[in-house]
Amino acid sequence: MLIGEDGVNRLRSSRVAVFGAGGVGGFAIEALARCGVGAIDIFDDDKVSVSNLNRQIIALGSTVGMHKADAAAARIADIDESIRVNAVRMFFIPENADQVDFSRYDAVIDAIDTVSGKLEIIMRAKAAGCFVISAMGAGNKLDPLKLTVCDIYETSVCPLARVMRRELRKRGVKELKVVYSTEEALTPIEIDADRGSDNEESPLRKGTPKKNPPGSISFVPSAAGLIAASETVKFLLSACR
User: Fold this and answer.
1) DSSP character at residue 215
2) What is the Cα–Cα distance from 225 to 29, expressed in whole angstroms?
3) Residue of 92, 35, 28, 34 whose CA lies nearest to 58
């Protein structure tokens, strides 16, 4: 009723990769599935933990301990079993990037945290000629109304965006669509080191911070994920007009 038969067919024939199935990526995946995107590849090697229950759509009592990619795939199947889902248990970094063929995708959503991985996703997606949107920091924020979509070189405030601007400029990237928050980050209350993660099977990985994780709440990462999915769907539908 909103996008017409051509739009529905366009989404059904599209293939999207989502890197990261956490607070941001999980909601992006959900929205893509409910919009009827025909094929979704999910890249994440983490497992659902109890600490994810406050903000991640795939985190339920029944999914704690499951790989996030598998939990997201199962959820998609329960929404629409005709969607082709490829759940890849991968912590994407430059060293394993050759395992992913970006040329098969119409669009890519970057919802991971590590700078090296984000840069590799962006560079490879652009080289393959597919649409890419990158999520900047959503932690330590409380106001979803401060989220916005712009070019990476128009961002401010966000420390992750600052690093990304510098590194992308070095690589000659002239533009990149991002979703980011203009809200100043809050300082989270410190917690005991052994409470930083309750997923004992996921050891600290290369590129992750060696300090307490940022605080997060239900409505900021989710809104960022929905915005990323919205921009992706708008791009996919633009081919119909």
Assistant:
1) P
2) 8
3) 28
From CA 179, how far away is CA 150, in angstroms rounded?
A: 7
Residue ranges of domains in the chain, CATH in brackets: 4-182+209-238 (3.40.50.720)
Residue 161 tokens, joined: 């965006």
Q: What distance in Å separates the CA atoms of residue 148 and residue 161, rounded to the nearest whole number?
A: 13
Sign of CA pseudo-dihedral 171, 176, 182, 183 = negative
Q: 151 has which bridge partners? A: 177
If we measure between CA atoms, which residue out of 154, 130, 83, 132 comes closest to residue 231? 132
Q: Which residues contact 90 (CB under 8 A, 6 or more apart)?
A: 43, 44, 45, 96, 99, 100
- Give the separation between CA 42 and CA 90, rounded to whole angstroms: 9
Tokens encoding 29: 């995946």
Tens-digit pLDDT string for the chain (241 aa)? 999 999 999 999 999 999 999 999 999 999 999 999 999 999 999 999 999 999 999 999 999 999 999 999 999 999 999 999 999 999 999 999 999 999 999 999 999 999 999 999 999 999 999 999 999 999 999 999 999 999 999 999 999 999 999 999 999 999 999 999 999 999 988 876 555 444 434 444 555 444 567 899 999 999 999 999 999 999 999 976 6
Return the number of other C-beta atoms located less than 10 Å from residue 44's C-beta: 28
